[in-house]
Specification:
Blueprint (H helix, E strand, L loop, with lengths): L13 H19 L7 H7 L10
């Protein structure tokens, strides 16, 4: 995914895009949860806490 400012130069910030993706996954999990709130364990699972990074 590329984000292009008005000047036409392509800018790519992998960390920001990854953070946005994780926020989206949290929002989806929260909206799908039958509970009032996500448990800490559910949040860790959505955020893949403790998993090895891809390619590392």
């Amino acid at each position: 995914m590329r984000v292009a400012p008005g000047g036409g130069t392509a800018v790519q910030d992998h960390e920001a895009l990854a953070e946005i993706e994780l926020c989206g996954e949290l929002i989806i999990a929260a909206s799908a949860a039958g509970e009032e709130r996500l448990s800490l364990e559910s949040i860790d699972q959505v955020l893949r806490v403790g998993e090895e990074p891809a390619g590392g």
